[in-house]
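Troubleshooting: if your tokenizer reports a length mismatch, compare your output against this known-good record of 79 residues.
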Amino acid sequence: MSESTKKPAYKTSHGGVNAAVWANQGKEGGTFHSVTFERTYKDGEEYKSTNSYGISTDLANLERCIFDVKVWQAMQNQK
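Known-good structure output:
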């Protein structure tokens, strides 16, 4: 299943910056996670996404997403 058709294990968003955590199967049967980030924006009437972030406009929201993912990871480790 491609990453575009499977659902993330966890998602969070702050101010147009989004994070998605993906569960992946390792070669020896274990599960590991990876995270992707993107920023959505409107170009005219169309919504688009990028992995580029403005220093003064997006870094605080990116940091909030990273914090949310770290909290999610810590909660998974406690299970």
